[in-house]
Amino acid sequence: MSNKTIAFIGTGNMSYAIIGGMVKNGFDANSIIATNRNPEKLAKVEADLGVNATSDNLAAVKQADIIVLSVKPQMMAELCQTFQDAGIEMSSKLFISVAAGITVKRLREMLGFDAKLVRCMPNTPSLLGKGVSGLFSDAISDEEKSIVTDMFSATGIALWLEQESQINDIIAVTGSSPAYFFLFMQSIAEKAVNLGFSHEQARLLVQQTALGAAEMAFANDDISLEQLRANVTSKGGTTHAAVEYLKSQNLQTTVADAMDACIARAEEMEQQI
Ligand SMILES: NC(=O)C1=CN([C@@H]2O[C@H](COP(=O)(O)OP(=O)(O)OC[C@H]3O[C@@H](n4cnc5c(N)ncnc54)[C@H](O)[C@@H]3O)[C@@H](O)[C@H]2O)C=CC1
Ligand SMILES: O=C(O)[C@@H]1CCC=N1
């Protein structure tokens, strides 16, 4: 592990998950600073994860070697301006932005100099070490790349991308997609309640089945997803009836269209922010 000091600026849902994954997988909590302007969130991150928590962004940035920018995209410009206004020497620091919809070029404009910068697109299962992080940089050293790889490998799979535009693609594939799975699970659970199961039972049944299906895919990664689905589907049976209905409602096209909407929104944000 690196001996760098890492500051997370704006530690909300996403950075909490990244820090949690890092700390559980061997990163020293003492080398991590988490900031938030919300005292309750700060207290939680400190109590749960044992990192140094502060509301003082500028002190954190001054102290850190690596700065993870993790406020909402719409708040990024205002945040970066405060670093500039404080006249902090930032040229030797490595910045990592997890924000959707802000390009490297725009982030450098916000920071006001030609910063060493990585764009990262993580997802919230990082907290359990089961995340995926897409990474892109146009200019960092091999040593810095290796440190960033270590950070995000501690939270799951770290995948370096060749083109910046692939960050928008991976938002659709992994950054936003936990929400698609949760929506699917929610739909099954709501119907289960409708059928007479209690809320607790419905939740338990759906999460166990989702976990089982994901673990089946992992345990049989030589078998196509289509085949795994076919293995549940008896000819003329019940699953067949359900799957044929989903297909008749264009589930696959709907999912593809949803992912296109996700990418289009990221591109639109790149124009607006
Ligand atoms: N939530 C997710 O699944 C993912 C989020 N992202 C990106 O992560 C970033 C953060 O998203 P979330 O964690 O979901 O949002 P969030 O709202 O949970 O976290 C942002 C936190 O920043 C704090 N904050 C805002 N301005 C601040 C300031 N000036 N100084 C200190 N703290 C400040 C807020 O109090 C908030 O707790 C976004 O840019 C988003 O695009 C990327 C991938 C996945
Ligand atoms: O919804 C968003 O914009 C962020 C980026 C990926 C997941 N959450």
UniProtKB/TrEMBL annotation:
Enzyme class per UniProt: oxidoreductase
Alphabetized InterPro entries for the sequence: 6-PGluconate_DH-like_C_sf, NAD(P)-bd_dom_sf, P5C_Rdtase_cat_N, P5CR-like_CS, P5CR_dimer, Pyrroline-COOH_reductase
Keywords: Amino-acid biosynthesis, Cytoplasm, NADP, Oxidoreductase, Proline biosynthesis
PROSITE patterns: P5CR
Domain (Pyrroline-5-carboxylate reductase dimerisation): residue spans on this chain: 164-269
Cell location: Cytoplasm
Reactions mediated catalytically: L-proline + NADP(+) = (S)-1-pyrroline-5-carboxylate + NADPH + 2 H(+); L-proline + NAD(+) = (S)-1-pyrroline-5-carboxylate + NADH + 2 H(+)
This protein's record includes keyword Cytoplasm: yes
Domain of life: Bacteria
GO cellular component terms, A-Z: cytoplasm
Amino-acid positions noted as binding NADP(+) in the UniProt annotation, renumbered to this chain: 9-14
Known EC number: 1.5.1.2
Record flagged with keyword Endoplasmic reticulum: no
Binding residue positions for NADPH: 57
Pathways involved: Amino-acid biosynthesis; L-proline biosynthesis; L-proline from L-glutamate 5-semialdehyde: step 1/1
Ranges where the Pyrroline-5-carboxylate reductase catalytic N-terminal domain occurs: 5-101
Biological process according to GO: L-proline biosynthetic process
One MF term in the entry's GO annotations: pyrroline-5-carboxylate reductase activity
PANTHER family on file: PYRROLINE-5-CARBOXYLATE REDUCTASE (PTHR11645), PYRROLINE-5-CARBOXYLATE REDUCTASE 3 (PTHR11645:SF0)
Known role: Catalyzes the reduction of 1-pyrroline-5-carboxylate (PCA) to L-proline.
Protein family per UniProt: Belongs to the pyrroline-5-carboxylate reductase family.
Name this polypeptide is given: Pyrroline-5-carboxylate reductase
Organism field: Pseudoalteromonas phenolica
